[in-house]
């Protein structure tokens, strides 16, 4: 009997430590609210404009095609979330984590995301026009053909990012930005003042597309291939 009692006690401890999966996932049916837990929930093709999700756990959540325009996701954790063709236009995302998200063709236009992390994110053809991204990190992100027209990129980190054919030409750098080992094949940098940028090397500049108004850090020079031909997609 003593052995049987010990076994029951051990089982009770296991159940307390590892509650049923259904109980842990119960928040998937809850309405949007601050600090909720939608981890790995499916929230596809929804209208969630203006939702308050500040500090929410959105790790692995599927927001494909969902409209989150104007939402508050400050300090929220969206790591590994799916945001393919989703919209966060005009959202507040200061300090949020978008690390390793999949956001092909997503719109982050006019997002306010100072200090946010997009490290390791898949952001091909994403729209960051007018975005406020001071101090944000795009380290190791995939940014092929991403659009940063009129975005504020002061102190933004692009270290080891793939910026192939990304358009930075209309962005503003009110201070240094970091480009260590960034891949800049045909990256549009026309008219940019990159004189305070760090990590830029001549090999990157030779691959990029600038013009006579592009300002480069000391020691770097414009290649004879500038300006690049206009690309037609």
Q: What is the CATH topology assignment of the domain at 44-166 and 178-183?
A: Pectate Lyase C-like
Uncertain parts: none
Fraction of helical residues: 10-25%
Query: What's the SSE pattern?
Result: HHH
Coarse morphology: elongated
What do we call the CATH homologous superfamily of the domain at 44-166 and 178-183?
E3 ubiquitin-protein ligase SopA
Give the end-to-end Cα distance, rounded to a whole number of Å: 76 Å
Task: Tell me the total number of β-strands.
Answer: 0
Mind summarizing the main beta sheet? none
Pfam family, one: Pentapeptide
Protein name: Pentapeptide repeat-containing protein
Keywords: Signal
Signal peptide: 1-25
What attributes characterize this protein structure?
single chain; 233 residues; little secondary structure; Pectate Lyase C-like; elongated; 5peptide_repeat; Pentapeptide-BTB/POZ_domain; Pentapeptide repeat-containing protein; signal
Sequence-ordered SSE layout with sheet pairings:
Layout lengths: L1 H16 L3 H4 L177 H6 L26
Describe the protein's architecture and organization.
- The protein is largely without helices or strands and 233 residues long.
- The protein has a domain at 44-166 and 178-183: E3 ubiquitin-protein ligase SopA (Pectate Lyase C-like, 3 Solenoid), CATH 2.160.20.
- Helices cover 11% and strands 0% of the residues.
- The chain has three helices and no strands.
- The protein has helices spanning 2-17, 21-24, 202-207.
- The model has no long low-confidence stretch (mean pLDDT 91).
């Amino acid at each position: 009997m003593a052995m049987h009692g010990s076994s029951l006690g051990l089982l009770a401890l296991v159940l307390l430590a590892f509650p049923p999966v259904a109980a842990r996932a119960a928040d998937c049916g809850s309405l949007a609210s601050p600090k909720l837990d939608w981890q790995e929930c499916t929230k596809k093709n929804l209208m969630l404009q203006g939702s308050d999700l500040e500090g929410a756990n959105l790790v692995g959540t599927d927001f494909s095609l969902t409209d989150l325009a104007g939402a508050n996701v400050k300090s929220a954790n969206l790591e590994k979330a799916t945001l393919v063709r989703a919209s966060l236009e005009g959202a507040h995302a200061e300090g949020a984590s978008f690390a390793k998200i999949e956001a092909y063709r997503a719109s982050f236009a006019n997002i306010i995301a100072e200090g946010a992390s997009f490290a390791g994110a898949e952001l091909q053809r994403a729209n960051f026009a007018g975005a406020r991204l001071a101090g944000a990190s795009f380290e190791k992100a995939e940014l092929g053909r991403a659009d940063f027209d009129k975005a504020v990129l002061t102190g933004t980190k692009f270290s080891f990012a793939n910026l192939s054919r990304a358009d930075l030409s209309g962005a503003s750098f009110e201070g240094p930005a970091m480009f260590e080992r960034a891949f800049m094949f045909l990256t549009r940098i026309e008219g940019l003042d990159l004189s305070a940028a760090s990590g830029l090397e001549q090999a990157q500049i030779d691959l990029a597309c600038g013009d006579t108004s592009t300002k480069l850090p000391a020691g770097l020079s414009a290649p004879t291939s500038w300006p690049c031909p206009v690309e037609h997609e």
